[in-house]
């Protein structure tokens, strides 16, 4: 006589909410003018619509200076998606040279 048994032990643990944050850093220097900026804007619109629910996000454009869409990352919802979409539509390659360190430090 053979006996086969299977036991599954599931540990109890508590998951803590984590804050997922996505920051898009966009080169808006003069060298990005024309079709390059058009491609960036198109890609950003796709990425914005694919963000996970309840994440936090921001968009930082850089050149000689940098501009942040929000002062700090905001929770992704319908209102912030509309704000970001409008911001992306108005983006251009108008921030001068290509200096990445300041926006990286700001993030």
Please give a handful of descriptors for the protein shown.
single chain, 107 residues, alpha+beta, four-stranded mixed beta sheet, 3 helices, 32% helix, 18% strand
**How would the global form be characterised?**
elongated
Helix/strand class: alpha+beta
Low-confidence stretches: none
Through-space gap between termini: 67 Å
State Rg: 21 Å
Q: Please give the oligomerization state of what you see.
A: single chain
Question: Can you write the helix and strand succession as a string?
Answer: EHEEEHH
Number of strand elements: 4
Sheet having the most strands? 4 strands, mixed
How many separate helices? 3
What helical percentage do the residues reach? 25-40%
Kindly state the mean pLDDT as a whole number? Answer: 90
The amount of beta strand, in percent, is 15-25%
Written overview of the protein:
Helix 1 packs antiparallel against helix 2. Strands 1, 2, 3 and 4 form a four-stranded mixed beta sheet that branches. The mean pLDDT is 90. A hairpin with a 3-residue loop joins strand 2 and strand 3. It is built from three helices and four strands. With 107 residues, it is an alpha+beta fold. The radius of gyration is 21 Å and the shape is elongated. The longest helix has 15 residues.
Question: What's the structural blueprint in terms of helices and strands?
Answer:
Blueprint: E1 21-27, H1 35-49, E2 56-62, E3 66-68, E4 74-75, H2 78-90, H3 101-106
Parallel strand pairs: 1-2
Antiparallel strand pairs: 2-3, 2-4
Helix pairs in contact: 1-2
